[in-house]
Every structure is written in structure tokens, then in C-alpha cells.
Amino acid sequence: MKKYDLIVGIGCSFMEGGGLDNPEIHKILNGLDEVASDEIRERFKYTNNFIAYLSELLDCKYINFGESQSSNDLIFKKTYEYFNFINDVSNVLFVGQLSMFTRQYIYYDYAKKFVKLNRGEFSDAPFYGSPEFKPLFDYYKNYLSFIYNEDNVIANLEKDIDLYTIWLKNKNVDCIWLSYDGAPNQFVESDNFIKFDGDNMGAWAEKNKLRLCDLAELKTGDLHMNIEAHKLVAQKIYNKIV
Questions:
Q1: Are residues 117 and 216 in the same domain?
Q2: pLDDT tens per residue across all 242 residues of the chain
């Protein structure tokens, strides 16, 4: 087995350990009487996701760039920005986790900043019912209604995965990709892409009741993966690369 010095993970909240820092969820999972500080809960999330567990299995350091509501274009952007100025990296494993297909990361000139588009309600982020963000809301609503096509999105994702894999391999970076979203027939298992018993990660977690909402004691509707799921994902990635 190749020895890695570093794992770099880039994905959305499903890689980040989403939900594990929720005050009530964290309290119950850790048997606490009171809600812990933000710092303690953030640390718990950062050390209990599948990138952290994979680093334990590989006995190496890790950086987890998982970020809530990240779209796939943001995930590829962060991948490019991190590795662009590195010409030769030895013993680094990159793990890329694809997010929900409908999400976008787009520059809104009125606000002079990039925003994450993920929710279809005007009252939700990043719109918050603000008149200044109504044109952006209308754009996203129309995009989802008249432009978005899942087959086209997946075809572009497959192309991007191939291009980024070749680019990273030229920098001596090993790659493993996986997708949270998607039906079983979307994406193909390969040396660089991992499936979970034939499913993509989200469907696998749902089928096997490995989400936070599946733990009765939590009494939550949170669809993020529970700790057992993160450990199993880490083990599946480990088994693939050994």
C-alpha cells in the first residue's frame, strides 16, 4: 500500500460532518447535560467525519475543506485553487465528494460577491426575502424550471472528473471521487470513483439507515450522515486504495 503524508478532502457538508455540530445533536451524542461551546462542537465535527477517520486508517495528516451548501462548481474551484501552484506533490491523496446537482456558486454583481444557490424559497439564504436579491432568486427559480437538466449536468461532471483526475495525476496526486447525489446508474465505479454497494453515497446511507435522522434518540430530521456512516465510508475508501 502506498504511504500517504496528507489527505486533502473537498466536498460539501456531507464530507464536513454536517449536523454533528448541532447543539442538541452534539449534546446527546456526547452524553452532556449542557450545550457545548461553538469551538468544542466545531472540533467534534472536524474530527468525526470520513476524511478524519480515513486519516486514522492511513496514519497521516488531513485537511478537510468540506463546506456546507457547496455546489460542484465551487468544489472544483477550490480543488483548482488549492493544487494550482503545486507542481509536484508526493504522497498526497485527494478525495473529492460531489454535491447536489442543482446547486450553483455564482457571482452576483449587485452584491459584488459570490453566493451559494441551494434553496428554492425566497425567505431562505442567500435571499432572506431581500428585494435586492429578488433578481437572483428569479434567476435561480427559472434555472431550475427551464434550464436545469440532470443528464446534462452529470455528463459535464463526468468530463470534469476525468480532466481533474488527469491534471492531478500529472502533479503526482492520487484521486478518489465519490458522489453524494444520484441514482445507482449515475456514475461508474472505477479506479478513481467509488460506489457504495452499487449506490452513490446518499442513497446508500438512506437505504442502510445511516443518517442522523435514523437515530431515534436524536429526534431530528437532519439528513446528514451519522458517525457510524462516516466510519464506514472511510473504511470503504481505505479498502479501495489498499
A1: no
A2: 779 999 999 999 999 999 999 999 999 999 999 999 999 999 999 999 999 999 999 999 999 999 999 999 999 999 999 999 877 678 999 999 999 999 999 999 999 999 999 999 999 999 999 999 999 999 999 999 999 999 999 999 999 999 999 999 999 999 999 999 999 999 999 999 999 999 999 999 999 999 999 999 999 999 999 999 999 999 999 999 99
Helices (H), the chain: 13-16, 23-29, 38-46, 50-58, 72-83, 134-142, 150-169, 201-207, 227-241
Say how many Å lie between the first and final Cα of the chain, rounded: 5
Q: Are 82 and 49 within one domain?
A: yes
Does 170 lie in the same domain as 77?
Answer: yes
Query: What residues have CB less than 8 Å from 165, skipping those under 6 apart?
Result: 175, 177, 192
Query: Where in the sequence is the domain holding 92, given as residue range(s)?
Result: 6-102+153-241
Co-location of 46 and 138 in the same domain:
no
Cis peptide before 126 (omega within 30 of 0): yes
β-bridge pairing 6-10 and 61-64: parallel
11 and 34 co-located in one domain: yes
* Residue of 84, 136, 93, 94 whose CA lies nearest to 113: 136
Does 138 fall in a domain? yes
